[in-house]
Task: structure prediction
Amino acid sequence: MTTPAIEILGLTKDYPAGFWRKRLRRSLDNLTLNVEEGEIFGFLGPNGAGKTTTLKLLTGLIFPTAGTARVRGQSIEDVRMHRAIGYLPEQPYFYDYLTARELLDYYARFAGFTRAERRARIGRLLERVGLGTAGDVQLRKFSKGMLQRAGIAQAILHDPQVIFLDEPMSGLDPVGRREVRDIIYGLKQQGRTVFFSTHILADAEMLCDRVAVLHQGKLMGVGAPSEIVSIEINAMEILFEERDGQALPAALAASAARSGGRCRIAVPEAGLYDALEQLRGCQARILSVAPVRPTLEDYFLRMVGGGNAASRAAEVKTP
Ligand SMILES: Nc1ncnc2c1ncn2[C@@H]1O[C@H](COP(=O)(O)OP(=O)(O)O)[C@@H](O)[C@H]1O
Ligand SMILES: [Mg+2]
Result:
């Protein structure tokens, strides 16, 4: 068996809390997790779940209260680990008056490249993240999406094997998110391992080989998006049009979502015929009946609380 790209063993972090900072608050609680070489791994969780804390621990920016981790077999406490990793922080800050090329040149000096190497490498990199024509524009003129791509270029400048990205898609419009997704996918095709945090579940569902869900510092589940969403929801969705002047029974009306003159309700599979009977009773026109395909979002909401039609329907079912 090959060594996992990332091995996380009981990683725990307490931060001082309270006015005198004497109390401690556990922000990451005994996280154990492996990420395989070549995977795109999504680290999901609501705000405050501990995602950034985990990424900072894994990139050696802060130190664990307990536990340990290895990246490609090297302990996160070993400075040599840094050659193997790239990191895009959450909301990176770059000096406004630098151009993208100057910014990358600055980081490339740290990595010890010669001038000629830097030139060639930065040219290729700018092309690769879609900034081929924007290399000499000052960063203050960049859109959020362009800045994020410049940040990713910085993270992959030294060709790291394992790339950590903290919320790489947040604040981007659909086009920007697509561009970042394409870059991440390109990294996978080159055999790199990408570990990124996000709260945009649709992006994770499209992109990730596996995801982990973190909530209040605790791991709630790990698996392929398809595996994770194959949890039994057994709900059916009915699409129908209401008949004017015919009120729906209260139980159905409460869960009905209306849009464009149509109504949707999700009901547990076992209650389908009963619901159809009731709808027929108020002369609703049934347009379709289909099984609810659970999404990562359903799973997520179920794990971290909250709810939507499908998860509510699933709850109805559980005694
Ligand atoms: N430097 C810090 N000092 C004290 N508490 C912190 C610090 N950084 C994060 N926290 C707390 O740790 C928890 C997890 O934060 P974070 O890792 O940033 O979550 P996420 O990235 O998932 O939104 C939050 O409750 C946050 O307030
Ligand atoms: Mg964060």
